Amino acid sequence: MTTSIRGGQLARLLGRWHALPGRRRNPDYAALAAAVRGLLADGRLALGVRLPAERELAESLEVSRTTVSASYRALRESGHLTSRRGAGSWTTLPNGHRVATSGLWTPGDDVDMIDLGVAASAAPDELVAAARAAADDLPRYLGTAGYHPTGLPELRSAVADGYTARGVPTSAEQILITGGTQQALDLVLRLSVPAGAPVLVETPTYPNALAALAARRARIGTHGLDTATGWDAEMLFGALRQTRPRLAYMIPEFHNPTGHLMTADLRERLVAAAHASGTELVVDESFVDLPLDLPLGDPAMPPPVAVFDRHSRVTSIGGMSKPYWGGLRIGWVRASAPLVQRLAAIRVGVDMASPVLEQIVAVHLLNQAGQILAARREQLRTRRDVLVAALREMLPEWRFTVPSGGASLWVELDGPISSALSRAAEDVGVRLAPGPRFGLDGTLERFLRLPFSLPPEDLTEAVRRIASVRHDLDHVTAPACRAPAVIA
Description:
The chain is of the alpha/beta class. It has 15 helices and 18 strands. The protein has a 7-stranded mixed sheet, sandwiched between helices. The protein has a 3-stranded antiparallel sheet with strand order 15-18-17. It is globular and about 65 Å long.
């Protein structure tokens, strides 16, 4: 069944499409077509979506039907739209594109692209040795069917020990091993969020969490984070009291994308407020192992949110993608033992269990967590400082708060140009994640997430290229209508 989007909805997503820097000399139809491609490029408009009729969109945008008609024709010519008389027009994929690690559609020949769309690092040196040791251990498990819906006992125990060491007494029965943090969130949503249920998220927030909530047809409400200071306690608690959401998804440790760290006092008050409003808290701890200016276990590091849970309101999710390697699809859920069993029953209908060999690899890596995480934090600290220095030198008008952990900067630009800048950066070999990907309905055009997980030389070169196209946005001398390199 093809999904449709109404004229008013598309107009909200397009936002100020007609007022982007450098587009004043472009025809309206070309600017509109480029803006629609931009929505496809950053994932806010999916493939196979039926666009509004020309007349309906023209009325919503307050432009002539001729402008919309010419825009649709340009999209058909670039391969981003297919039309059939009597059936309408729907978004499509140009030839020669593939799906990238970011989940977006990209050209198949982008091997030289500097990818700043993904806030994840390459594998640690210890991974190969861990994989070999896991292969040696594998024969011990070959006498069974190999299905472990809740996870291998050894891995569940290792994850539980990690929580206990952080101050949250946890047993292996409270851990469910999943295929990455994203699957952990998906399973929790399948259990807790029926279609139409209200949920609360921060804005900005992790794009794939928004996608998972949209897939559940949740009614999403937002609580805005201040760029400099993070959470406003009274606004957050007011949102909980007023909307009484079924579930609230939060990222308290080095928030993705802003990098903020929630204080211990706010964590305690948040759990109490969630209990009062009947809200389940889902706490994403993807970056908890990456404090860059504080050692792990330092008293200045706030305790886990689950420390304050007295009524089984907190479900914690995490995984190995950010501190270890994204290619190792190991995540987990920490919850009450009965809830874990209910999640495991749902999980059986999804993929049965996680691969045994990968779980054994994870056990070996967790046994070396001290040295691996220390090296990862030192690596990210160095790269963060390189990125900060490059931005201050080449784009001094951009503003940001240097995070004390995590893997990215949340940068406030000098204008609402995030999507336009991202499209332009593709032409010089840099892939960006524009601000609107981290919010709803086309907001956050003044912001850009810049991960610092790549090698220092790549980060410096990427900023140099971004600075060059930022200058060009204000000095466009000729109309341009092109097919972007990323499509979603």
